[in-house]
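Provenance and format

Records in this collection were gathered into a single text stream. Each protein contributes a sequence line and a token line. The two records reproduced below are adjacent in the stream.
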Amino acid sequence: MKRSIRILFVFAAVASFALAACGTASPTPVSTNAPVTTEPTTTSAPTPLPAGSITINGSGATFPLPLYAQWTYAYQFVDPSVIINYQGTGSGAGKTAIINNTVDFAGSDSLLSDQNYTDGKDLQMYPIVAGAVVPIYNIKFVTPSVGAGTPTPAPVTPAKLILDRPTLVAIFNGTVTKWNDPAIVTLNPDLKALLPDASITVVHRSDGSGTTEIFTKSLTSFSPDWKAGGASSIQWPTDSKGAIGAKGNPGVAGAVLNTPNSIGYVELNFALANSISFADMINKAGNKVTANAASLASAMADFATTFTDKLTNTIVDAPGKESWPIAGYTYIILHTTSMTDCAKAQKLLEYIRWTLTDPTAAKGATKLGYSTLTLTVQTMVLSKLSEVTCSGSPVLK
């Protein structure tokens, strides 16, 4: 039977977050265990719409989807008049939706192109949190051999896999093709007897994806051997060697869980929430690091002064000793002068300001493995939000 991945919007955990935020009773939580699906996930408050409520629709990146689910639920206790629906359709679809004015805001980990800015006319990206992309794996470790008449040993819990930058590139290039390849064994001497003589199946995103953009930009920086480029959608070198494409972070996670001896990449929380093994990395400084809020914060600090005039920043392959090398910001994209429903615009910007400044919102982000903005970056984002206008007047008071 194929192993299932738990749905990431777990109401019990979210309800406890909401209680911490407001100190009041929440609706009865509902626990659910659902298989991975490549269909968009909608996150919305479970209560009926009150009279005079405002519904705000967004779509885009699955990278921040667990966090947006938690914030969306919690915010109904902050402002019950606001219902926020966010669909995890992928960064590419989110950018298309905001350009076409079919959503009120978009989520993206992939940067807008010059053409996107031209087509969207008045678009602005706002970094919200930083997140880690991690190499997840499903290795069928071998059982150590024993002599005749010797009892079979108890199952071994293998040590965590370690990869370095060139080896990760080689795997996704299709030049390291077996789990017991010397490049992997050298990095993992404790696993030498357990790594199987089995072909590696690469799993990657099939949709336009900010997670892919972060991952492939990292591979580009890791080694000149990576020729496929760093973008939200690329031609994967392993496609001719049996690679699997899957939609969204949930799709990649599910494909890895259900494919023995596979490797893929997802946002950290998708691995943590579903107990999927992910590799540690040897970073640019030559140190072994684990993906977590601290190693993300270190990567952010390494690039603190490199924001563009569009408020965007690339933070892959950071040089710091404690920095996780596959990291990126996730952004909300807004129209800055052309929103016509000023009441909705005000509620939307108040919600975004809450996500950036509320201590409980920040605590929830950290708990899920994201890293909140530094004070300097937060100040830049809030200043840029204050410039958004509706009918010629500032939206935020």
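Adjacent record:
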Amino acid sequence: MTDVVEQRAKIRVVDFNLHYGDFHALKSVHVDIPDRQITALIGPSGCGKSTLLRSLNRMNDTIPGVRIAGQVSIDMDDVYGANTNVEQLRRRIGMVFQRPNPFPLSVFENVAYGPRLHGTRSRTALAATVEEGLRGVGLWDALMDRLDDHALSLPAEQQQRLCIARAMATRPDVLLMDEPCSALDPIATRRIESLMRELVDRYTIVIVTHNMQQAQRVSSHAGFMLMGELVEFGATEQLFAASRDQRTADYVAGRFG
């Protein structure tokens, strides 16, 4: 069961089901994800939280045997509609993965990749986009003289920031983050969390995390998933302090998971 979110919903999921072949991975998920807030999805491994995240921009389309039913919309536009341009959809909904995955290109070309793919050819325009993106993630001062350096030569935290800048470069409305700090040390994790809090003024952010303390630190809303079901959704403080479902209470208390 989910709570109705008071803020305007940026993303609405209605009776959404997903099967991997015969496996029912998501079961009748209903949720409204609020605009320009950080929403965290928590739950044990294999509960469906990353599958739900990837469903929001149709990243599961590439997996053989996937079947979906129900509806996902962003700003009332049907994500799975017959006329939906998936390339444009993914421009609106950026994705940051669990481990930093910069392209094997220069720092500049990583950030410029999306705009170039979508038709930007002007070197001046690309340079402005790269600078804006790197400033947005706090990397410009460190990398302004190293734009031609290979991205894979950067430390892990800088690589992840670069991936966030790459996702931002197409000017999305939404940023999806699948355990963005799991490969980082505690200091780097705090820096990425601080960056999330800065970015939420401009973006709707949805994160998947196994770190319940992280969910409490950064999110305004949280959902607990178990065996493909969204068991409970609401304000993060309420979900952790006064869970309405005993399964949620048991999980956040550490009794399983």
